[in-house]
Specification:
It contains 13 helices and 13 strands. Helix 2 links the parallel strand 2 and strand 3. It is globular. The protein has two domains: about 230 residues, Vaccinia Virus protein VP39 (Rossmann fold, 3-Layer(aba) Sandwich); about 100 residues, Alpha-Beta Complex (DNA Methylase, Chain A, domain 2). The strands form four sheets. It has a seven-stranded mixed sheet with strand order 3-2-1-4-5-9-8, with helices on both faces. A two-stranded antiparallel ribbon has the order 6-7. With about 450 residues, it is an alpha/beta fold. This is DNA (cytosine-5-)-methyltransferase. Belongs to the class I-like SAM-binding methyltransferase superfamily. C5-methyltransferase family. It comes from Halomarina oriensis.
């Protein structure tokens, strides 16, 4: 039996990408992140080294994993680039005397490429937000050589010095200067079995003699073709709703396996598929309570059963439920939540400014109730500030951490901090494990097993 491909995870966060790669058959042996809460969550969920450092102060040859250059199969990661995000750009531009272009975190991807340059993996994958595709930058003399070794005879990286060019072109020039065939692909997580519309860009690089995988070929889900296909899937196996111990569904039983050119695929997983089995909670703390620590219903959909990850020979009512508590809401928020229909968002200009919680020169629409018959809207780290964009479809409140995690495809036994603020941020910033798995399978089957 062949050994599994070996990977490392840079800017690992809470470990969503790592979990996806593990599900895809990789051995992830090392990770790095500077966020203390992310490192704690990562360590709780993964049994290998994670370096709690700012990557800018590290050297791959001394601080990285004990692996020789050329022996690593994959480097994965998602360097934060706040100005590439619409919310990130608005927030930075609103700060006095500071614009998004001045934020040094925009250059963190070069530190990702430093590790690529040193370890020379067979492939790499770098995740980022679609806003990056709209950004431009002035190419400065020598800027590429600041961090990366570049062949002096190769003028491609410096050919547009002084010109304003698309940021993706600059990044691809730098990747190709390291000897990789590289390009970017834009995908929606809902196409891969995540119950959430979440568009992301993946830069993938492979050695020049390898062919880049086409991520679209590995999609498992699609738009529903009828109202019937939007209904929550209900478990139908014998004894599905009995109290007797039973083995949890495997991933393959709950979700279709990743196969190239699947046709026609399954209808999108929805908010109902993901969260409507969880017990009700409320901000007032009476009935329902503020927090629920146990399940009151069995899992209704196959996806819910897979998410619960009940240990073998246990019943669902014996399992502890974590991170399912309701944040406090004032009466104005609760009243507005009740007014909204499923999937409705109020936009600036449509209602009085008195009903808007945000500045109208920074944010555009910010009250949104999730539609149970569709995938959720994109779960963002901003959920740590308030939940106006993430209102529960049937209860007058915002989503709990556990509900947000499920919409990101984290299973219920995946450890997250008890602090809601920290947990919301980690969940909102994470690569959905199911999406990470799709990317990992595409690279493993399309590149690593073909050479």
């Amino acid at each position: 039996m062949n050994d599994p491909p070996v990977a490392i995870d840079l800017f690992c966060g809470a470990g969503g990408f790592t979990q996806g790669l593990k599900n895809a058959g990789y051995e992830v042996c090392w990770a790095i992140d500077s966020d203390a809460a992310a490192v704690e969550a990562y360590q709780e969920n993964h049994n290998h080294e994670v370096l709690p450092e700012d990557i800018r102060g590290t050297e791959p040859e001394t601080d990285g994993p004990d692996i020789e250059p050329g022996e690593l199969d994959l480097i994965a990661g998602g360097p934060p680039c706040p100005s590439f995000s619409m919310i990130g750009r608005s927030k930075l531009d609103s700060l006095e005397d500071r614009g998004a272009s001045e934020d040094e975190r925009n250059l963190l991807y070069r530190h990702f490429l430093r590790y690529v340059a040193y370890f020379e993996p067979r492939a790499f994958v770098m995740e980022n937000v679609p806003g990056l595709l709209r950004d431009t930058a002035i190419v400065e003399t020598g800027v590429i050589q600041q961090l990366l070794p570049v062949d002096p005879a190769d003028e491609s990286a410096e050919k547009r010095v002084g010109q304003e060019v698309p940021v993706p072109d600059i990044i691809l020039d730098e990747m190709r200067s390291l000897g990789y065939h590289a390009d970017w692909q834009r995908v929606d997580a809902a196409d891969y079995g995540v119950p959430q519309h979440r568009e992301r860009v993946f830069f993938i690089g492979v050695r020049d003699n390898d062919e880049l995988p086409d991520l679209s070929r590995w999609a498992t889900h699609r738009e529903p073709r009828s109202d019937e296909e939007t209904k929550m899937r209900v478990r139908s196996e014998p004894g599905a709703f009995t109290q007797t111990p039973q083995t949890s569904l495997t991933k393959e039983e709950a979700l279709p396996p990743f196969e190239a050119d699947r046709n026609p695929g399954e209808p999108y997983l929805t908010v109902a598929d993901a969260i409507l089995d969880l017990p009700p909670v409320s901000p007032d703390g009476e009935m329902p309570p503020v927090q629920a620590t146990s399940y009151t219903l069995p899992p209704v959909s196959p996806y819910q059963q897979w998410l619960r990850d009940v240990p073998r020979d246990e019943t669902w009512d014996e399992q502890e439920l974590r991170n399912h508590s309701c944040r406090w809401h004032n009466h104005l928020d609760l009243s507005i939540y009740k007014l909204l229909g499923h999937g409705v968002g109020w936009n600036i200009g449509e209602v009085s400014q008195e009903l808007q919680p945000y500045r109208d020169d920074v944010f555009r629409d910010k009250y949104k109730k999730q539609n149970p018959a569709k995938p959720a809207s994109t779960i963002l780290a901003h959920i740590q500030k308030d939940g106006h964009m993430f209102i529960h479809p049937t209860e007058a409140r915002s989503l709990t951490v556990r509900e947000a995690a499920r919409l990101q495809s984290f299973r219920d036994r995946y450890w997250l901090p008890e602090s809601r603020t920290k947990a919301y941020r980690l969940v909102g910033n994470a690569v959905p494990p199911r999406l990470g798995e799709a990317v990992g399978v595409a690279i493993r089957k399309g590149v690593l097993e073909e050479t």
